[in-house]
Design brief:
Chain A folds into two domains: 76 residues, no CATH class; 214 residues, MetI-like (MetI-like fold), CATH 1.10.3720.10. Chain A is built from 17 helices and no strands. The radius of gyration of chain A is 31 Å and the shape is flat. The two termini of chain A are 61 Å apart. By secondary structure, chain B is an all-alpha fold. Chain B has one domain: MetI-like (MetI-like fold, Orthogonal Bundle), CATH 1.10.3720. Chain B has a two-stranded antiparallel ribbon. Chain C is of the alpha+beta class. Helix content of chain C is 23%, strand content 34%. In chain C, α3 packs across α4. The longest helix of chain C is centred in the middle third of the chain and has 18 residues. The chains are: A mainly alpha, B mainly alpha, C alpha+beta. Chains A and B meet through α2, α4, α7, α8 and α9 of A and α1, α4, α5, α6 and β2 of B.
């Protein structure tokens, strides 16, 4: 019986050879490190037999080998991280570098890593007018603010109902809402396009705002937050004769503020980055959103495009996002780590 | 025991959300299924009073359609390339970030930067980096004024410049550019999640491994990866879902031609296909394609969850 | 393996709120004899865990030396020290079975220590049998009780045949009943394997019951070392006296005057040869004898029956705490009449301490 058991055990550690293989691969990569390690362990082994003096010498060698290995590893880690960080940053640098050059300098066969013909701030002014960025900014900010405010109101009310009120079918309704989160948005767009056309909303602000006011994910997020607030607070407020709205305003909202800020930022970023839907339903210049305007203004990549101006426009569009990021990093990261959705 | 006042109050609070959801979420689901099952359904022609036969023809047509197959291949290829690369890279970066103290927060901020970008705007920057400016490509009189910074770097190291995205570029070169851009774009979210996971792993596991003299390599594969597996599965699944919905990053690089000037539409994706069908008023075809996309996402997600349940349980 | 600590000191820079450095362990010198079970004992924050981690090599001492046998291991990293370490929360890998957990350290062995697969399995079963978990080898840690997890952790630590076994608060995550059982288990395993074992605890009863020797620490400084009974009978200072013993020692404010120990208006003991001064006085609960001729008068509050013994809760003007507690054999309780109790104090159960330094003042020396 024991033997059979042992055989079973053997099956269990089948994984080991795989690990060994990988280790051997590493041996080829960094032969010195491994060799050192092997030497070390073979030195440790005969400790019992060796004389005291030799032991101490061995120990000293092991210690110094350890230190070297540690430093080498640390250097490699930092080197790798810095290279990756540079790769991440390079496009941003190149964007700004290019945006400040003259077109002639941009087209030099040997690139310059700093504008050599003087810094062309004029590119930014030109980009602003060429891409009609002023109108686009205003449109986008307007749509962003209005949809964020309305969306927050709707989200807060729904989350409150789901978190604090009792009604028939609450759990089924909530589960049904969560289920819709699995469906890709494109599936809705097809019908929504027809719906907004029939409603006569094409090329209005309404069409950019209304269809996306309700986000099941935000309701879910806020409900979870509301649930953490003890129900006794609500009951106490009821005993004192506080109205629901006042309670929401005075207690729930302040306590859930971080989540609300996260939602606000994500919603604003969503408006800033929206492209597909606006292109479909509001492609006129009067209601165009920033991303569409940007792409449309520089749509030809092969013709004689003024690239520095294009890069200046891109930089101008990116700037507000960076400002938001710098000041509200904490909320963005918190919101993002729970959402998994871009924008 | 549910009191009546709470009942109507709850429905009142929910009313705005529910009305909007009914119009813009529930009805579309029903309508998409309906349209997909009406052969050659078109919104315009339906408005003119035309009726359509019930059947699965839309699905059959879509699958037979060469353009659709190309979109499907592009989508799958980009997903299969970018998800493993970005996940592995993000994992290594996160482990490194977690192992250092000095500059750690600063580097975290840098690695998160690509997240707060407009994927179309930065796509244009990437396009500029790969773009060859000149004229008469591929002819005897070819004039190249600047080959783009990436080609400059390649030439600096003694390589030959590559036509990445311009007219005459190869499919492989296009896919390579897209892969680089999508990976760059996908890193921050994955790093954020994985680093968060790493920071919540109990340090004592590593102390225990240290006492046992476990090599770094073994610690990584036998302890870090298994303990992090729920987060890894999460970023892989969201990565796949995002990958199947890839669209705007391609618009960012190639513009709405969805391909180099001489091969427009070559890099079109599933989502692009749906919008093209929609723009030409072929709602039946668009619906069928959308349902196929949903089906693929659902199946891939379920398969991954199932597989992960076998591997990740403790 | 004998373990020698020489002037071991650990300073954490800027760890507390004010930003100044914290001395976690201060000048720890001690020789741990080979093959013994040693308890490092003290309240939380006394530096006992830090000391353990320094012995393990996971933390580097700021100064001082550590010797295993005659070898200086101060700079040596943990894997070369031939130690086994059991963590407070066990740190069992949740994704591996018991078997895989025990095998894990064995698979790391290199060079001459390298084992074949069969040898590893044999070894795993051998240590599993010692801690009696060999029937759970296929389970995951989450499918085991706290006590079983603890044993797996010990088995994993033993698998490499360590020369020193270190246990960090080994019983703190167990419920009261399991704790009693497991501490006997630890003693048995230690006796059976003969490995020098050092464990850390804040529970004095735990330390006293199984240790061959205890080390009492406070704020990074060693207070007293020795066999548990010796330390209990002969505390070096007020802290050690208060820290050891349940129920705790009764502490009084009093004085020595004319060779007598006086609490309030009661003369309770002789203190020949001790100069007149204000002192702290400690009397162990078992040091009270009900005696109608007793010199210590207490006002009885309550009598708690505990079966074999009876605990008398009473008041005395000199007591530092609101009440004093004395344990009396149940047979003598009939001597208690009314609300006033008269006690005679056993000579070896009363200690006096310097008012300023709180050091023990020995009587008759």
């Amino acid at each position: 019986m024991k033997k059979k058991e042992l055989e079973e055990k053997e099956v269990q550690i089948e994984e080991t050879p795989v690990v060994e293989e990988i280790k051997e691969e590493m041996v080829q990569d960094e032969p010195d490190m491994i060799k050192e390690e092997k030497e070390r362990s073979s030195r440790v082994a005969p400790v019992v037999m060796a004389s005291e003096e030799e032991q101490n010498k061995d120990m000293a060698k092991i210690v110094s080998a350890q230190k070297v290995l540690k430093v080498v590893f640390k250097v490699l880690v930092y080197l790798f991280l810095c290279v990756m960080a540079l790769a991440v940053l390079f496009p941003f640098y190149w964007m700004i570098n290019s945006s400040l050059k003259t077109l002639a300098e941009y087209k030099r066969p040997v690139p310059t890593f700093f504008p050599a013909e003087g810094i062309q701030w004029g590119n930014y002014a030109e980009a602003f007018t060429a891409a009609n960025l002023g109108t686009l900014f205003i449109n986008t900010v307007f749509v962003g603010i209005v949809s964020t405010i309305l969306s927050l109101v709707i989200t807060v009310l729904s989350a409150f109902a789901f978190a604090r009120l009792d009604f028939k079918g609450k759990n089924i309704l909530f589960a049904a809402l969560l289920a819709t989160m699995m469906i890709p948005g494109e599936l809705f767009t097809i019908t929504n396009y027809t719906t907004v056309t029939n409603l006569g909303w094409l090329s209005t602000y309404v069409v950019l705002i209304v269809p996306f006011l309700v986000s099941v994910f935000y309701i879910y997020l806020l409900r979870q937050n509301f649930l953490q607030i003890p129900n006794e607070l609500y009951l106490a407020a009821k005993v004192d004769g506080t109205s629901d709205i006042k309670y929401l305003w005075k207690v729930m909202i302040p306590l859930a503020l971080p989540t609300l800020i996260s939602i606000t930022i994500l919603k604003m970023m969503g408006a800033w980055n929206s492209y597909i839907w606006p292109r479909l339903v509001a492609n006129d210049t009067a209601h165009s959103m920033i991303t569409n305007g940007l792409r449309n203004a520089f749509t030809d990549t092969t013709g004689d495009v003024n690239y520095p101006v294009q890069m200046a426009a891109v930089a101008l569009v990116s700037l507000p996002l960076f400002l938001v990021f710098i000041f509200l990093r904490k909320y963005i990261m918190k919101g993002v780590s729970r959402s998994g959705l871009k924008g | 025991m549910v009191d009546n006042k709470q009942q109507w109050k709850a429905w009142l609070y929910l009313a705005p959300a529910l009305v909007l959801l009914l119009i813009f979420t529930v009805w579309p689901i029903i309508n998409t299924v309906r349209m997909s099952l009406l052969e050659n359904y078109s919104g315009l022609r339906a408005a003119a009073g035309e009726t359509f036969k019930f059947g699965f023809n839309n699905f059959i047509q879509v699958v037979k359609y060469k353009q659709f197959v190309q979109c499907l291949i592009n989508t799958i290829l980009l997903t299969v390339l970018t998800v493993p690369i970005s996940t592995l890279l993000a994992l290594v970066i996160s482990v490194c970030l977690n192992s250092i103290k000095f500059l750690s927060r600063f580097l975290q901020t840098i690695f998160f930067l690509p997240y707060v970008t407009n994927s179309i705007a930065i796509g244009m920057v990437f396009a500029a980096m790969f773009n060859i400016v000149g004229s008469f490509f591929g002819t005897q009189n070819e004039i190249i004024t600047t080959a783009g910074i990436i080609n400059n770097v390649i030439e600096f190291f003694g390589g030959h410049r590559i036509n990445w995205i311009n007219a005459g570029s190869t499919y492989a070169a296009n896919i390579a550019v897209m892969t680089i851009y999508i990976v760059w774009n996908a890193l921050p979210f994955k790093i954020l999640i994985l680093l968060g996971g790493l920071q919540s792993v109990n340090k004592q596991y590593y102390d225990a491994a240290k006492v046992d003299g476990t090599s770094r390599w073994r610690v990584f594969w036998r302890i870090t990866v298994p303990l992090l597996s729920p987060m890894i599965i999460y970023v892989v699944i969201t990565g796949f879902i995002g990958g199947f919905k890839e669209y705007s990053s391609i618009v960012g690089i190639f513009g709405e031609t969805m391909g180099p000037a001489d091969a427009s539409g070559r890099l079109n994706t599933m989502v692009g296909f749906i919008y093209d069908a929609l723009k030409t008023n072929k709602q039946g075809r668009a619906s069928a394609a959308a349902l196929i996309l949903f089906g693929i996402i659902l199946v891939v997600t379920l398969v991954q969850l199932r597989w992960s349940k076998k591997r990740v349980h403790y | 393996m004998k373990v020698t600590l020489e002037n071991l000191t650990k300073i954490f820079p800027n760890k507390n709120k004010s930003g100044s450095e914290v001395i976690a362990v201060n000048d720890f010198t001690y020789e741990i004899p080979s093959g013994k079970l040693i308890g490092l004992l003290g309240p939380s924050g006394c530096g006992k865990s830090t000391s353990l981690y320094m012995i393990s090599g996971l933390q580097k001492p700021s100064s001082g030396k550590i010797y295993f046998g005659d070898n200086d291991v101060t700079e040596l990293s943990p894997e070369h020290r031939k130690i086994g370490l059991v963590f407070q929360n066990y740190a069992l890998y949740p994704h591996m079975t018991v078997m895989q957990n025990i095998l894990f350290p064995l698979q790391n062995l290199k060079g001459e220590d390298k084992l074949t697969k069969d040898q590893m399995i044999e070894r795993a079963y051998e240590v599993a049998k010692i801690v009696q978990i060999d029937e759970f080898m296929d389970r995951k840690p989450s499918e085991l009780s706290g006590g079983q997890q603890q044993r797996v952790a010990i088995a994993r630590a033993l698998a490499k045949y360590p020369e020193v076994l270190l246990l960090d608060e080994p019983l703190s995550n167990l419920d009261a009943r399991l704790r009693l059982q497991t501490r006997e288990e630890i003693k048995r395993i230690q006796t059976q394997t003969g490995i020098t074992t050092i464990f850390v605890t804040h529970d004095q009863e735990e330390a006293m019951s199984i240790s061959d020797e205890i080390v009492v620490m406070k704020l990074g400084v060693i207070q007293q070392t020795g066999k548990p009974q010796e330390v209990y009978d002969n505390p070096a200072n007020l802290f050690v006296a208060k820290f050891l013993g349940t129920p705790p020692i009764n502490v009084f404010e009093g004085k020595v005057e004319g060779g007598k120990v006086i609490i309030g208006s009661d003369t309770v003991a002789d203190a020949a040869g001790v100069a007149d001064q204000e002192v702290w006085i400690g009397i162990r609960p078992e040091g009270f004898i009900l005696d109608s001729k007793g010199t210590m008068n207490c006002e009885v509050q309550n009598v708690e029956v505990m079966g074999r013994d009876v605990s008398i809760v009473s008041k005395h003007e000199g007591s530092v705490n609101p009440t004093i507690r004395s344990i009396i054999d149940a047979d003598f309780i009939s001597k208690l009449k009314g609300t006033e109790a008269k006690f005679t104090i056993k000579k070896n159960k009363i200690f006096i301490f310097n008012k300023e330094t709180e050091e023990r003042i020995r009587i008759g020396e």
